[in-house]
Automatic annotation (TrEMBL):
Record-annotated Thiamine pyrophosphate enzyme N-terminal TPP-binding domain positions: 5-120
Keywords: Pyruvate, Thiamine pyrophosphate
Protein name, per record: Pyruvate dehydrogenase
Domain Thiamine pyrophosphate enzyme TPP-binding: from-to ranges: 383-529
Species this protein is from: Streptomyces coeruleoprunus
InterPro entries: DHS-like_NAD/FAD-binding_dom (IPR029035), POXB-like (IPR047211), THDP-binding (IPR029061), Thiamin_PyroP_enz_cen_dom (IPR012000), Thiamin_PyroP_enz_TPP-bd_dom (IPR012001), TPP_enzyme_TPP-bd (IPR011766), TPP_POXB-like (IPR047212), TPP_PYR_POXB-like (IPR047210)
Family indicated by similarity: Belongs to the TPP enzyme family.
Pfam families (UniProt xref): TPP_enzyme_C (PF02775), TPP_enzyme_M (PF00205), TPP_enzyme_N (PF02776)
Taxonomic lineage: Bacteria, Bacillati, Actinomycetota, Actinomycetes, Kitasatosporales
């Protein structure tokens, strides 16, 4: 009986680690691995049209499932295309294993055709990146890569020459136990006691939450109730903490709304829960600050800290709540809830007046209607740029919906390939790609992947024929917009020509019907909505120091932007304030 090849051994280890798909584009150095997948049950090869899409898709699958996902690229240019999507996965803490296949092992370092050095190139966007140089090395190296990806919730890259993959595997390969999941991290008692004393001494406590509050909604609500704290969130914390939240005061940052900014600045103790919020211009510098994070390297890198707490948010709060005294004074909380409701009341009017007659269509209106019509367990993937603004302000989380984007890396063109990965996890679940015309056009080729695999992704295209966020950046800098206008085709016609459902919407009254029809369609669909290029966004507070990464505009022609159904929740929270 023939011995197993290194490629077959590689594939078997991926299956044992729970990997179900390998996204990529075939190529000569990958052929042994792809052929092994062809002959292996339990692992599918997903052929995308661009390796960048492969990495984005794997990252989205990992975020939706919480399990290890994988992608691959052939030697040289093939695996180089992976790098942008891998940066995004790594910064999103998505466990992804990337195979960067390599030139023949005997040619490395000799300027061979398509030669690069993937074991060096991918180091900055991974927790582990190594080269397999012999068959005997492979099982342990791949196991180590898998354990890094799962244990660190990030990217591991394995570079493997094609000739090594085709060789017979080493005899008597050791069976390795694989790490199934990450453990929780509990702070020490002395740290919990110090935090409890700080909470007890504070008169006004505010909680600001990020993606690290995933799975800790009940604990955050219990703690907020005990200490009468308003709860704000960053964009990546929205889906985990905004729903069923009677303490909600909105979101801070350049995409923010409501009273989160005021709540973080007018408290005397700010507790940052599981957030690596990058915009320190929005954080106070004159209040006491505590940060709780499972990643110790993130503690204190955004703001001065009075206490750093290394621990999982849920476990930390479970230990903390019994140790703090219940507060009875709601005046600060109620004042912030009132400010939040008032702020939302004011900005909603900016887009609700005569929207059914306004052309080009307000993008705020599109996002609001989309939010109303989408399924209660839909997965939204969101392009970077103005789509981030509309998702932040209009999509209503409920504990079942997911909102995925390039929120930390900030890449264009992420939404469509992320929708591919999300849809593969469950073909019956509604997946909606909120794409900008610039981002969609950049990786438009992978719309064909939806058709090839009959993935029922619904692409809602916010088509303002411009790079809207870049125009906003130029406006802030006092520059005339230049190079930001897109001369677009009829994207719906392109979708139909490819064999998908496609409809173009130019009038507001057509919008709801078009979305309903697209959602009913069993296969992939694209709704090309012509939106107003002048609809931009204003953050809750403006200062020159805040212009970093994104941009903010002082122009009076800029709309504040509404906030959809969040106003209803804010009104309810104010109505529920106890009366004396």
């Amino acid at each position: 009986m023939a011995r197993q090849s290194v490629a077959e051994q590689f594939v078997d280890l991926l299956v044992r680690a729970g990997v179900q798909r390998l996204y990529g584009v075939v190529g000569d150095s990958l052929n042994p691995v792809v052929d092994a997948i062809r002959r292996t049950r339990g692992l599918d090869w997903v052929q995308v049209r661009h390796e960048e899409s492969a990495a984005f898709a794997a990252g989205a699958e990992a975020q939706v499932t919480g399990r290890l996902a994988a992608c691959a690229g052939s030697c040289g240019p093939g695996n180089l295309h992976l790098i942008n999507g891998l940066y995004d996965a790594h910064r999103s803490m998505a466990p992804v294993l990337a195979l960067a296949s390599h030139i023949p092992s005997g040619e490395i370092g000799l300027g061979y055709f398509q030669e690069t050095h993937p074991d060096q190139l991918f180091r900055e966007c991974s927790d582990y990146c190594e080269l397999i140089s012999s068959p005997r090395q492979m099982p342990r190296l791949l196991q180590t890569a898998i354990q890094h990806a799962i244990g660190r919730s990030g990217v591991s890259v394995v570079a493997m020459p094609g000739d090594i993959a085709a060789q017979p595997a080493a005899e008597k390969a050791t069976e390795h136990a694989l790490v199934p999941a990450r453990p929780t991290v509990r702070p020490g008692d002395e740290v919990i006691d110090a935090l409890a004393r700080m909470v007890d001494d504070a008169h006004r406590v505010t909680l600001f939450c990020g993606s690290g509050t995933a799975g800790a909604h009940a604990e955050v609500m219990q703690f907020a109730e005990r200490v009468k704290a308003p709860v704000g969130h960053a964009l990546r914390g929205k889906e985990w903490i905004q729903y069923d939240n009677p303490f909600d005061v909105g979101m801070s940052g350049l995409l923010g709304y409501g009273a989160a900014y005021e709540a973080t600045h007018e408290c005397d103790l700010l507790i940052l829960l599981g957030t690596d919020f990058p915009y320190n211009a929005f954080l106070p510098d004159d209040v006491r600050i505590v940060q709780v994070d499972v990643r110790p390297e993130r503690l204190g890198r955004r703001s001065r800290l009075d206490l750093a707490v290394w621990g999982d948010v849920r476990e930390t709060l479970r230990c903390l709540v019994p140790r703090v005294r219940a507060k009875t004074d709601r005046r600060f909380l109620d004042r912030m809830l009132k400010k939040h409701a008032d702020a939302l009341e004011g900005v909603v009017k900016a887009y609700t007046r005569k929207v059914e007659k306004h052309t080009p269509i307000h993008p705020e209106y599109v996002a609001s209607v989309l939010d109303e019509l989408a399924d209660d367990d839909a997965v939204f993937t969101v392009d970077t740029g103005m789509c981030n603004v509309w998702a932040a302000r209009y999509l209503t989380p409920n504990g079942r919906r997911r909102i995925i984007g390039s929120f930390s890396h900030g890449s264009m063109a992420n939404a469509l390939p992320q929708a591919i990965g999300a849809q593969f996890t469950d073909r019956r679940r509604q997946v909606v790609s909120m794409s900008g015309d610039g981002g969609f056009a950049m990786l438009m080729g992978d719309f064909l992947t939806l058709l090839q695999y009959d993935l029922p992704v619904k692409v809602v295209l916010f088509n303002n024929s411009s790079l809207g966020m870049v125009e906003l950046e130029m406006l802030v800098a006092g520059l005339p917009s230049y190079g930001t206008t897109n001369h677009n085709p009829d994207f719906a016609a392109i979708a139909r020509a490819a064999g998908a459902y496609g409809v173009r919407v130019e009038k507001p009254k057509q919008l709801a019907g078009a979305l309903k029809d697209a959602f009913k369609h069993k296969g992939p669909a694209l709704v090309d909505v012509v939106t107003d290029p002048n609809a931009l966004s204003m953050p809750p507070k403006i200062s020159a120091d805040m212009v970093t990464g994104f941009a903010l505009s002082a122009s009076k022609i800029v709309l504040d932007g509404g906030v959809g159904r969040m106003l209803q929740m804010a009104r309810s929270n104010v109505r529920n304030i106890p009366r004396p």
